[in-house]
Amino acid sequence: MPCTIIVGAQWGDEGKGKIIDILAKEADIIVRYQGGNNAGHTVVIGDEQFVLHLIPSGILHKGKLCVIGNGVVVDPEALLNEIEDLRRRGIQIDGNLIISEASHVIFPYHKVIDKRRGAIIGTTGKGIGPCYVDKMARCGIRMIDLINRNTLKKKLLANLRGRGYKEFDFDEIYRKYLGYGRRIKKYLANVSLVLNEAIRNNRRILFEGAQGTLLDVDHGTYPYVTSSSATAGGALTGTGVGPTYIDKVIGVVKAYTTRVGEGPFPTEFDKILMEKIRSKGKEFGATTGRPRRCGWFDAVIVKHAIMVNGISEIVVTKLDVLDEMKKIKICTGYKYNGRIYRYFPADIEILERCSCIYEELPGWMEDTSSVTRYADLPKNTKRYLHRLSDLLKIKISMVSVGSKRKQAFKIERL
Ligand code: IMP
After folding, report:
1. pTM of the predicted model as reported, rounded to 2 decimal places
2. I need a labelling partner for 69 at 20 to 30 A (CA). Which of 15, 368, 369, 413 fits?
3. pLDDT tens digits for 35-79?
4. Substitution candidate for ligand 1 out of 124, 287, 317 with most atoms within 8 A of CB
């Protein structure tokens, strides 16, 4: 795996944290390339649970270099808290973490604007969108600016005065953020240089995508998306590594579908099924604690994700959550206004109002959470995986049947 990108192929929360944790064993460097602390990657090691928001999940493996790329937006307070929290739990940070000098910084006004305006989309309220707005408007403040008193002063004054943010006190924010800069300085690096040198030295790099394809600002259910490039392309622009160095893109999908926040969700369950799957799958946001909306597997959106990311294999997670379902449905198309859609439509109205075309398969009604190899899965579980693989025309390379590290196994052939 010299350079492998891991992406979510649905609306995020596919279980990427756990899969990255497993694959990180074989990698030298793990890189986050977009998003910020809106993400929540959960990893369970033994009896301990870790939820990582900014720092790549690879930090839980000793001696791996973890990188926060230029495409990430960093809330310095959240970052320092995460570092402290991990340190207290015995995780070595210094020497194992670098942060791009060019990554943009989230300020208090970003969070206030997000909380004020983000309600329609149901954002996480972490200031992600407003920070990316400043980046694109070319008035953002970058990590490197936090260690240059003059630049920080100039830019912060321009941002506060130019926009009439009267409720924010310049002196207070300036002093606070200079302080953050002093504490973060030792982690700052030219990430592109470090990664390209590592590639020349045949080091194995894992690019860790946050959120998911359908939340990508270009390829998702716009405007109900996040403000970054959560697809594989983001791994390039978000780190400064060229496309010719990427060997593989792995998509992670849940055996069903979930989404948090507002926006269209064609296969969403009715109330009874929603409650059942939500409680069995513990479907509550790792960052905000919000209940996740749940629904059947949607092959239309996953096919779209496979295409726009160039995914070459998928990992299916949380298969065990379907253990008690008598029947399982897969959506293979949408019907709207007398037309059938087999491909992901850009028109949000179609996604909001369509009815789904389903295939129904028999459930397996057996506990799969202790299965450790493909051959031991129930017949109907294999049938479900086969059908997914056929519909999506993609190889399934791994399956996960629980939150623990050992509850996952590779599949050579279906
Ligand atoms: P934002 O990223 O906070 O701007 O939120 C935009 C949309 O993306 C909202 O619907 C959020 O619920 C969703 N979102 C952001 N991060 C995640 C994530 O890590 N998992 C799932 N949904 C997310």
Report:
1. 0.96
2. 15
3. 999 999 888 988 899 999 999 989 999 999 999 999 999 999 999
4. 124
